[in-house]
Predict the structure.
Amino acid sequence: RTAGILHKYQSFTAGGHLTWQLWDNQLPKRQKEWDTKLASYKRIDHFTVQPRDFTKNSVDHEADYAIRFFEVIRKHSPDMQPWFYAEWVEKNRGRPTDQGKISSRQMKQLYPAQTWEESMAAMLLYNEDLQAKVVETYKEGKRPRVLPSCIAMGWIKNLIDHGKLPGAEKGSMYPFLFSNDSVHPNVKGGYLVDLTWYAAFYRESPEGKVLPAGTGLTAEQAKVMQKLAWDVVKNYPDCGLYEEGTTPVASPE
């Protein structure tokens, strides 16, 4: 609202449930409730799923259920933009993606992630592989995109560890941005995630617009997060804002 937008969000989720569990277990008993919520909206602009189904053949399995949800929303709002919301991982980094156990169409060999930052990249890789699988068969409506919030989480740790977030001690990411030692951010961490959603959905920088009301962040900290979120979204090709640069990258070292 500080940016002049009344963003309405509706959750069709259940605590800890994977996408297939929402469809198979929750939908049968919440059909009326969810239908009523869906009907209350004249249109839906964006719809996100939160992939993390690390079972056997997980990409194929999760793609099937993601498409089911996309189709329900698309029938209600044909112009809606589907998204795969690439989340961060738990503090202990114990997911199969962290351990290099999920196969990828993009890489012949995967290795365990050695750092928090690498874990964020591994989570993004899973989402990209899932997206590619869905695109093979899901031809209706807009092409699903990937929302790289995990990359912002990787970069904020890197900034904190290098003393580049004003007022945050080096190595303090978890107590500073999370409410516990698991996966749940506090209002400060949630603010950074919200900035990535704003930048991706509204296709503009949140800098100086999405203000940190009620977060306890300083103006300097908020400014760093706003720039970070915009840098991540505009430079990630699949958000639709990426522009090819003219300066060659350096040689690998």
